[in-house]
Amino acid sequence: MAEKKDQYGASSIQVLEGLEPVRLRPGMFIGTTGVKGLNHCLYEIMDNSVDEHLAGFCDTIRVTLEADGSATVEDNGRGIPVGMHEKGVSAERVVLTTLHAGGKFDGSSYKTSGGLHGVGSSAVNALSAYLDITIKRDGVISHDRYERGIPTVELIDGLLPVLGKTNRTGTRINFAPDPEIFDTTRFKADEIKSRLHETAYLNPSLTIYYKDLRGPVYEEITYHEPEGLVGFIKDMNKNNEALTDVVYFKGMSEGIAVECAFQYVNEFHEDVMGFCNCIYNSEGGSHITGFKTQFTQVMNAYARQLGTLKDKDPNFNGTDIRNGMTAVISVKHPDPRFEGQTKTKLDNQDAARAVAKVTGDEIQLYFDRNIESLKAILSAAEKAAKIRKQEEKSRTNLLSKQKYSFDSNGKLANCESRDASKCEIFIVEGDSAGGSAKTARNRMYQAILPIRGKILNVEKASIDKVLANAEIKSMINAFGCGFSEGYGNDFDITKLRYDKIIIMADADVDGAHISTLLLTLFYRFMPDLIFQGHVYIAMPPLYRAQPAKGEAAYLYDDRALNEYRRTHKGSFALQRYKGLGEMDPEQLWETTLDPDRRKMRRVSIDDARLASSTTELLMGNEVAPRKDFIYEHAKEAALDI
């Protein structure tokens, strides 16, 4: 019986060959097709070179952002094997055209590795307009080239053509991101430099040469950090008052190498970073859990031994003890399990045990010999515990005065649904825009929270002033998930009442400043809202073009206006929106509130350390570094002229 076209039958089953799955679903392999995914392609290639270093065969890596927009990674490792594979072609061709193919599965070529999936190089190849590879190995220079994952070089008896002879070894890969895949093909230099610098800290005997040839000013940096993690901690704390020296230790447990450095500074926050096989795990994982749990247990035992805690006193919690801590935990694991190809979270429970064992042994040895550092940490924990208890009382008193619904001041216009997965809240500046938004919204799923003017800059304010700010209290109360300094225990993302928190500000300088202040608040006191993808920025249009005949067009920037002028025939009336308050409810719904037509940007953080330092620089008290940053990045700004 013949199958109908609309039926699900044998003919519906498709088999994707080679690298087709990568091009069809790139997000599964690199996370996103935005800048984050673009940079991730470079990291995948670079991580292979770092793996050669970890294996003991490479001490130099060169990373170049080329003038034509491509990127080059070159190392002096062993070189990808080019000999005949059992599949009948060069092993290099198998590595770059086959998913889950590589030299990291048998456990002999690489004892530890960041890229164990065998997906990285082949995925980058599939997502590149072209990839050109030169290999120095076995006394010869071999060459291959691909376009969108398809080889363009003809093999000779199954082997790569030889360009010449050499007495050196290594691999050089030059690739250009495919504009058909990526939203942008311009690599983001700041994040790449941060990643390279981290890699140098994690590998003290490795030297990384970085070049950016894209202009207008060429940049060259050499990353070599012989102090390793100690230098890493010193760098992160260079602008803070230190309470202790940098504590460093390392050890082995269950075949896992553990390395750690930490220091306490006179700041009310913690910064604990985790790495596995030189890969930064932005969402932490089992190694971070093992460190935090063991450290808390040991420090509470010391607190009772020294009398800081009496018999009747409850233990310090982990947040109290880590108040002021900056730490880096690095593990080398022979068989790591990450959550996803982008390796954001480590999942091995043996890593937790190994880190806990090494941490427990080593910090006791250190503090038994350095009692003054121990006392300084316990003093900071005692202070943090007192402040936490005071804040809990203050927070309860302050937030209990507001109801979660329509309040007497008309602040929160809540939605009717209580299904958090479907609900969204718009934070709108100004009574006029707030009134229009309340009228225009879908009352079932969209809540409106108007705020008046610019909120407090939390980067400069004390925590009591933050908690006393009326606008901030309104947001905390509306979100429902609490409030915490850093990653404290009072914030519970599972209680969030809205899947989307949307900042809706005017498309001008003041609107941008309001958005920045709100993002600073979220990042410093409710960071999981950003890390888990709940924060968005609405994109209201700048112009409304009404032709003599036909429907009006909304234009979101000057580029869109110029394109409209170029393609539109006939006259049209042009209206520029100076603010959201100038839109009537129908226009606001069409452009900014309607889920089917609106445009929004989701806020994400690729590099937590870079985000933290940049936030401190731009929103803090020091003017000179902020001025330098603005001058350095002026060429990247989008001007409204």
Model description:
With 641 residues, the protein is α+β, with helices and mostly antiparallel strands. The chain is built from 20 helices and 22 strands. The radius of gyration is 28 Å and the shape is flat. 40% of the residues are buried. The termini are far apart. The protein has 3 domains: 20-223, Heat Shock Protein 90 (2-Layer Sandwich); 229-389, 2-Layer Sandwich (Ribosomal Protein S5, domain 2); 401-540, Rossmann fold. The strands form 4 sheets. Strands 1, 2, 3, 4, 5, 6, 7, 8 and 9 form a 9-stranded mixed β-sheet that branches. Strands 10-11-14-12-13 form a 5-stranded mixed β-sheet, sandwiched between helices. Helix 3 runs antiparallel to helix 5.
Descriptive terms for the model:
alpha+beta; nine-stranded mixed beta sheet; disordered N terminus; 22 strands; Rossmann fold; 3 domains; 641 residues; flat; 36% helix; Heat Shock Protein 90
Shape: flat
Please describe the biggest sheet, giving its number of strands, its sense, and whether it closes into a barrel.
9 strands, mixed
Named CATH architecture of the largest domain: 2-Layer Sandwich
Class from helix and strand fractions: alpha+beta
Mean pLDDT score: 83
Percent range of helical residues? 25-40%
State Rg: 28 Å
CATH classification class of the largest domain: Alpha Beta
What proportion strand? 15-25%
How many helices? The count is 20
CATH superfamily of the largest domain: Histidine kinase-like ATPase, C-terminal domain
Task: Tell me the number of strands.
Answer: 22
Low-confidence stretches: 1-5, 8-17, 103-108, 401-410, 626-641
Terminal CA distance: 66 Å
CATH topology of the largest domain: Heat Shock Protein 90
Query: How many discrete structural domains?
Result: 3
